[in-house]
Amino acid sequence: MSDILQTVDWSRAQFALTAIYHWLFVPLTLGLGVIIAIMESIYYRTGDDFWKRTTRFWMRLFGVNFAIGVATGLILEFEFGTNWSNYSHFVGDIFGAPLAIEGIMAFFLESTFIAVMYFGWGKVSRGFHLTATWLTAIGANLSAWWILVANSWMQYPTGCTFNPETVRNEMTSFWEVAFSPVAVNKFSHTVTSSFTLAALFVVGVSAWYLLKRRERQMATRSIAVASLFGLVASLVTAYSGDRSGAIVARLQPMKLAAMEALYDGCEGAPLTAVGILRPESQRTSDDDAFYFKVDIPKMLSIMSFRDAEAYVAGINDLLRGNPEQGILPAEEKIARGRVAIDELARFRDARQSGDQETVDQITRKFDPSTPEGREFLGEYFAYFGYGYLQSPEQLVPNIPLLFYSFRVMVDAGCLFILMLALVWWYNRRDKLAEKRWLLRLAILCIPLAYLASQAGWVVAEVGRQPWVIQDLMPVGVGVSKLPGESVATTFFIFLALFTALLIAELSILFRQIKAGPGKE
After folding, report:
1. 453, 410 in Cβ contact below 8 A?
2. I need a labelling partner for 276 at 20 to 30 A (CA). Which of 24, 71, 107, 472 fits?
């Protein structure tokens, strides 16, 4: 058992490491590509060579980031096969479809036109070059769409049915998978937050030029584009984040309870604006969860269910059950999950022994088109993954990590909205260069944007634990049968490799920024 746990822990650590490093590069690619396309559109409309020079400067920074993001992304996809082979077998028919479309359609789109974008200046018409730039930006965001569709299905498995003969989930509706409410909202929230990060990057770099009294025209005009773009994107991010909270409340109540460190459910639940948690051993209820906290009355109920008096379930409710609210105890879910697992094992044994009557009987239980199947799937197979858990406490994710990460993300987002609005206003009035405190804040917001972006993924992914697929497969079941030492070795190899790539990228970026746009 300890060997299995070691393999699971190292596999999770390796995947988290790869995802963290990959996401250092992706959001800048998604947003900066669009900003570059906007700037080139201005050049196409005005014919002003200043905008051509400005576009090419930001394009150089985009290119460095794009190349390293692709390298880490490819490794991330390969890890599904190497470290998570049981997961890949269980859901490969579903999970593989959006990833295949991403590679065939979106990735090839951006990788084809990026060559024209970089090497086509003066070789193709201005209109064709502009089209290539926009298609590169669109291709990058299409890639994000299909990858986020795959991730959203892990949060909310829909559009599929379980086949007991192959022990696989098989897709029944591509459109349900591709356009589930979780996928649509996750895409809008992730992409607009990436747009905000890229805007903060452009504003911060331009602010550095203003502090150094260099490239004033390029800096102020870049800020004019990026600050307005980022302000709109940040407001949309806030809206989609609010929608995301409502979706989580309905589909992943344990994640919401952990984000708020809410132990005891109640009607008219308050939202904790600020708080410091006690150690885990001292936390069993809302009364002893915090050293101190500041609540906003009824706000959690409003945000979750659009009703000030709505009931929001707490961690204790989800573990012990609450019959009045229709919440099953976790022990009951585990028991029902084990019934589903036992039926699947009985099906395998019957098929091996040639007991066709038993095979037919169990097949009907897994058939959603029959009344017997609908009852079994709803009452038992819906809790299939719970059958692999040893205790209800395994259902509780890391509460302090979620609680503080959520507040880092939200508080930083509020700061970005305020800062971008001020930058846009002062720049419009040609007074930004005088506000040196604001220019310094703009530079500090670049690393803060990356921190907030990573915190958002911590909330999304750590909050789903212990599930690799919500309610269907715990992480311990999805992992490959590999020696923990082997995974640990590759973890440190990847750590060294990714760190070297990050240092190389930062070195090139800083050198390019210091050199400036140069002369055309």
Report:
1. no
2. 24
Q: Where are the beta strands (DSSP E) in 270-392?
A: 271-277, 290-296, 311-312
Nearest to 8 by CA among 387, 476, 439: 476
The position carrying tokens 């669109």 is 138
> Which range among 33-47, 81-95, 144-158, 373-387 has the greatest average pLDDT?
33-47
pLDDT digits (tens, 9 = 90+) for 113-135: 888 998 989 899 999 999 999 99
244: tokens are 């995301």
Instruction: Tell me how far CA of residue 344 lies from CA of 166, 254, 394, in angstroms.
Output: 11, 27, 23
pLDDT reported for residue 1: 46
Measure the CA angle with vertex 245, ends 174 and 262; round to 5°.
130
Gap between the Cα atoms of 30 and 17, Å rounded: 21
3-class SS at 290?
Answer: strand
Which pLDDT tens digit goes with each residue over 306-344? 999 999 999 999 999 998 888 999 999 999 999 999 988
Residue carrying the six token digits 């997961």: 87
Angle formed at CA 94 by CA 91 and CA 99, multiple of 5 degrees: 110
Taking all residues of the chain, what is their mean pLDDT, rounded to a whole number?
Answer: 90
> Are 224 and 396 in contact, with CB atoms under 8 Å apart?
no
